[in-house]
Amino acid sequence: MEVAQGNPRRGKRVGLLAKSVENWFKIAGRELPWRQNRTPYGTLVSEAMLQQTQVARVSPAWKAFLEHFPTVDALARARQDQVLAAWKGLGYYRRARNLQAAASVIVEEYFGKIPSDRLSLEKLPGIGPYCAGAIASIAFGKREAIVDGNVARVMMRIHGRNVDGESRTGKAWLWNRARDYVTESRNPAVANEGLMELGAMVCTPISPKCGECPVRKICGAYTAGKQNQIPRPRRRAVRSLLHANAFLASVNGRSALVRRPKFGLWSSLMFPPTIESPNVISRKVLAQRLGVDAKALSARGFFTFLTTHRLVRFRLWNVDEASARNLKNAQKKSWTWHTPRAVEKLSITSAMREIYEQADAHENAKAQARKIRSKKGSMKARKSGVK
Ligand code: SF4
After folding, report:
1. Mean pLDDT in consecutive groups of 10 residues from the start of the chain, 387 residues
2. What is the 90 CA–ligand 1 centroid distance (Å)?
3. For ligand 1, is residue 222 a contact (CB within 6 Å)?
4. Residue 47 designated active-site
5. Please, what are the domains in the chain?
6. Residue 153 Cα: closest atom of ligand 1
7. Which residues, 6+ apart, have CB-to-CB distance to 347 below 8 Å?
8. CA-to-CA distance for 153 and 160, rounded, in angstroms?
9. pTM for this one?
10. DSSP labels, 45-74
C-alpha cells in the first residue's frame, strides 16, 4: 500500500481507524431491513435505491420492492411499468430502469447470479465504481474500496486535508485513502459499511458530533479544530431555467396523460401533457399549439420545482371539457386517457404529484373566494333592505 508502506505513522492511523470503525459499527450500526439478512440481490437493490435517496424513504420501499420482485430473475422478467410503479416515491426513475436492465444482463450473461468482482459489476447498467465496490465488499466480503459523499468527507477530516472531490487528483487521493483503509480492515464489509454509517450518523456535513465519535483521537480535523472547515463547502451548481406549461384535461372523468420522451426530465414516465420552453409562452400561443381557442384554457396555479440541474417554472392550465373532447380526437396518438384509479397505480413523480396538489389548492382557493364574495354580496343586500 502506497501510504501504509511509505508513511508508517499514517499507516498506523489507518489501521486504527479501520479497527475503531468496525468495533463501533457492530454496536452502533442501525438495524436496516437490507442488513438483517444480507444477500447479493438485496444489496444490489438497496445500493441502487440509496443513491440520492434518504434511508427513511428507502426502508419501506426496499421491502415492498423485494416482495414484488423477490429474485433477479423476477425483476428481469417484469414489465417495466410494474418496476416503475414499485419505485414510486423514490424519484430518479432512471435508477429503476437501470436496475432492471442490470437484472437482465445478470440473467443472460451470469445465469442469474450476481457477479462478485468489481470489473464485472462495473459493466452492469447503472453500476459505477462506488456501487461496484459496495456490492463486492458488503455482499461478497471482497477487499474493495468505496468512495461516496460520506466516505469522502470522513477521509478528508481524518487526514485533516481539504481536497476537491470533483478533480482528478482529488478523486485519486480519496480512492487511495479508501483502498488503504479497506486493506487494513479485518472485515471489509463491516469496515466499509461502518465508514458510510459514521459519515451519515456522526461525521455529518454540518455540525459533526465529534464528542460521540469513535475516531476523534486520530482525527486530523478534530485535533486542529477544523472539522467545520473540512471539507470546503461546494459551489452550488447553476440550474438552467425551464418554463413548463402543464395541461389538465379530462373527458368523462378520465384524465389526459402522455408518455414523456425516452431521454431528459422524467424520461419515459406518464405525465400530464406539457409544453416546455426556455421562455414564457403566452396563453394565445399555447392554445394555438394545442389547436384550441384561447378561452378553452384557464389558469390553475403555478409553482417552481427544482431538479438537480433545472429550475422548472410550472404553469398549470385547465382545458375545458368540450375542447378536451376535441383534443381527444386530435391528439389520439400521444394523449392517453386514464381513470383516477389508473392514475393512482402509475409511478407518480414528485413533480406530477405537485401538479395535482397545486391545481387542487388553486381550485379550493377559488371556491373559497367565491364563497366570501357571495357572503359579502348577501350582507350588502341585507343592509340595503334594512334602509
Ligand atoms: S472527530 Fe469529528 S470530524 Fe473527526 S471523524 Fe469524528 S465526527 Fe468527523
Report:
1. 50 89 97 95 97 91 96 96 89 91 97 96 96 97 96 96 93 97 96 97 96 96 96 83 95 92 88 94 93 92 91 95 81 84 84 89 79 74 63
2. 30
3. yes
4. yes
5. 2-223 (1.10.340.30), 240-376 (3.90.79.10)
6. 8
7. 81, 84, 85, 87, 88, 93, 96, 269, 270
8. 10
9. 0.74
10. HHHHHHTTS-HHHHHHHHHHHHHH--SHHH
